[in-house]
């Protein structure tokens, strides 16, 4: 019985048997050693961090981790600060108090008190379209960024979409945390 199994086994060779090689030029697989490129992917404000991680800085500039930390706070802050709903009673500003310098917190409180009572529903949604470093001075613990924001304003059942310039200034505390020291809204584009 054992002899028959061995004989059958010899008629059906396993995968280890050498296969004849195809004649012709070898395939060029050198592209496998190149850095990956992204195709078929759309990048926008929602996934700009993925783009920067995948492709590096768009302009080829190198950004230090400290500057990237400041840029991330600037983006987060302006999108939250610039997104408002009359139903939320300035929650957008209140939620950001811990990211503000004492002077900025004082300004924010005065700003809220100076605003008239809202008549009907109104809202603004803000997304950063671009952020450029105007100045970054780690020894001075200061950073300034120019921003272009996409804004959608809704009031009285009507919506208006526009772009607006802004400048945001950050100061770094002695413990290393970045705080927003000022925010200036500029002209509409």
Concise account of the structure shown:
Helix content is 28%, strand content 31%. With 189 residues, it is an alpha+beta fold.
Rounded to the nearest angstrom, the radius of gyration is 29 Å
Low-confidence stretches: none
Helices and strands, in N-to-C order? HHHEHHEEEE
CATH architecture: Roll
By CATH, the topology is: Nuclear Transport Factor 2, Chain: A
Question: Helix amount, in percent?
Answer: 25-40%
Count the strands? 5
Given the C-alpha coordinates, what overall shape results?
flat
Your description of this structure?
A hairpin with a 5-residue loop joins strand 4 and strand 5. This protein has a five-stranded antiparallel sheet with strand order 1-2-3-4-5, covered by helices on one side. The protein has a single domain, classed as Nuclear Transport Factor 2, Chain: A (Roll), CATH 3.10.450.230. The radius of gyration is 29 Å and the shape is flat. The protein is 28% helix and 31% strand. It has 189 residues and is an alpha+beta fold. The model has no long low-confidence stretch (mean pLDDT 83). The relative contact order is 0.13.
């Amino acid at each position: 019985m054992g002899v028959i199994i061995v004989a059958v086994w010899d008629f059906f060779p396993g995968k280890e048997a050498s296969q004849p090689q195809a004649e012709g030029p070898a395939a060029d697989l050198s592209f496998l050693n190149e850095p990956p490129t992204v195709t078929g992917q759309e990048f926008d404000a929602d996934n700009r961090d993925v783009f920067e991680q995948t492709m590096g800085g768009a302009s080829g500039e190198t950004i230090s981790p400290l500057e990237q930390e400041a840029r991330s706070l600037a983006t987060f802050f302006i999108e939250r600060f610039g997104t408002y709903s009359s139903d939320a009673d300035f929650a957008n500003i209140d939620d950001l108090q811990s990211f503000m310098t004492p002077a900025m917190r004082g300004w924010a409180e005065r700003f809220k008190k100076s605003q008239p009572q809202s008549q009907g529903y109104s809202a603004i949604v803000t997304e950063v379209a671009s952020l450029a470093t105007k100045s970054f001075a780690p020894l001075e613990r200061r950073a300034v960024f120019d921003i272009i924001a996409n804004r959608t304003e809704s009031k009285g059942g009507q919506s208006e979409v526009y772009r607006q310039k802004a400048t945001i200034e950050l100061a770094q505390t002695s413990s290393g945390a970045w705080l927003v020291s000022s925010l200036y809204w500029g002209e509409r584009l």
